[in-house]
Amino acid sequence: MVEAEYVSTQLAAVADPVFLLETLFGEAPVAFALYHVDGQCRVANRAFRELFGSVPPLDYNIFKDELLTGLGLMPEIRRAFAGEPVALPAAWYDAGKLAHVQVAAKRVAIEASMTPLKDRDGAVRHVAASYKDVTAAHLLEAERRVLRKLFEIAPEAILIYDLDTGRIDDANDNAVRLFGYPRDQLLARTPGELSPERQPDGRLSSDAIGDNLLRARRGERLVLEWTHRTATGDPIPCEIRVVYLPDEGRALCRVSIVDLRERRQIEAERERSRSLHEQNLRIHEANRLKSEFLAAMSHELRTPLNTIIGFSELLYYGRVARESPEHQEFLGDILTSSRHLLQLINDVLDLAKVEAGKLEFRPEPVVLEAVISEVTGLLRTMALQKRIRVTVAVDRSIETVVIDPARFKQVLYNYLSNALKFTPDGGAITVRTSPEPPDAFRLEVEDTGVGIAADQISRLFLEFEQLEPARGGGAQGTGLGLALTRRIVEAQGGSVGVRSQPGQGSVFHAILPRETSAIPAR
């Protein structure tokens, strides 16, 4: 009561102390309300009205306040009415939702202090309540809690870097799980300690980190692929997004990390499935081509065999006199068919050797013009029959090369026989050689034949492939000659190709080293 007596003494000097106290209470910048011990609100000041939107109605009773009861504050309030000063924690309050009274009000966050007031005999007759508006702080705290929740439940790992200290300021649970460190150890790491020494592109991680953080500080939003490292040293391929977060004098940087391991695994599985599908298609295509090849081979083998057997029977049974011209002609047909049959068998065997790695190459010095003349001589009869002019043009700078002469003849024979087969009567064919920098030479066979459609060229050098009948005007074959040519040339480190247009002829070429090495069978 000492304080009360002091106030009473001081107020005695005031002309109108009651008016002074009324004015002080009414105009005080702090919201006040005075409650009777029965819970009725006796008076509230202007600041109270401004804070809550209205003053308590006459029938309001604090002990009937459902909102305070729902907030669990009623025990503290009863302690205040029992004579104990009480500070109530901050809470949202909206008097408009009260059920026992009707009042127009607004929702605010408040902190309240309740002070019991005793009369002269020491009994508590009233309780003074002061209220502080903490809505802004409460909203900010609520916003921070929401942001923290979003930070923690984000599907990706998130690290907050302090650019000034170079260390991790915060990390969510996904980041802890991703890197495999306890939280306190993770927060003690630097960006470089969470990365391997070098990135997959060979760049030092420390250099790349410094560059990326500098760009982020300038305001760039970075999205890039990065490789991190777990506590056990395992690499983590990631996609990271770097955003600069200036915060009250601190330079912070948020790094969102998406683990790409599962995505890469799915992509690898998808690629593996695609590869298996393509391989399956190739197998089916190979089976189809082999079936067509067997059908073609059946025809190609039976034709010369039937010729050999038919003419041999005529000669064996003496149906053709030895002295007759037919006898000599039949022998020539048997010889031609036998050679054709041997060539077919050799092609098949050579292709099998190439595929098995058993085709041998024995290089030796070869005069190109002589070898080319030998091959053109073998096909002179066919050229004469079709009145096709065959011209040879050899570059004198490459008269002699070191190659396997038999294999070179085989390549040229296949090119030249194809040209003769698909060039109409009266056409022209040119065989030429030229240097191919730096240390190779080019063989070309150019014809004035029917040409090849662009969509057919890719099939020319494939095993068992034959172009549409229109290409050859009825010419038949096994589809092995050009495929074998490609295999022979590539086995010596060379390449083959063709350029052609329908109706304008074709130019087939082979590029070979000027000096090849011996290749023994494996």
List the topology elements.
Layout (H helix, E strand, L loop, with lengths): L1 H10 L5 H11 L3 E6 L4 E4 L1 H7 L13 H5 L3 H8 L4 E9 L12 E12 L5 E10 L1 H19 L3 E6 L4 E5 L1 H7 L3 H5 L17 H13 L4 E8 L5 E13 L2 E10 L1 H56 L8 H32 L7 E4 H11 L1 H6 L3 E6 L5 E4 L1 H18 L5 E9 L3 E8 L6 H4 L11 H4 L8 H11 L3 E6 L5 E8 L9
Parallel strand pairs: 12-14
Antiparallel strand pairs: 1-2, 1-5, 3-4, 4-5, 6-7, 6-10, 8-9, 9-10, 11-13, 14-15, 15-17, 16-17
Helix pairs in contact: 10-11, 11-17, 12-14, 14-17
Describe the structure.
22% of the residues are buried. The protein has four domains: 2-140, PAS domain (Beta-Lactamase, 2-Layer Sandwich); 155-259, PAS domain (Beta-Lactamase, 2-Layer Sandwich); 264-352, Helix Hairpins; 358-513, 2-Layer Sandwich (Heat Shock Protein 90). The protein has 17 helices and 17 strands. A hairpin with a 5-residue loop joins strand 4 and strand 5. The longest helix has 56 residues, at 261-316. Helices cover 43% and strands 25% of the residues. With 522 residues, the chain is of the alpha+beta class. Strands 2-1-5-4-3 form a five-stranded antiparallel sheet. Strands 7-6-10-9-8 form a five-stranded antiparallel sheet. A five-stranded mixed sheet has the order 12-14-15-17-16, covered by helices on one side.
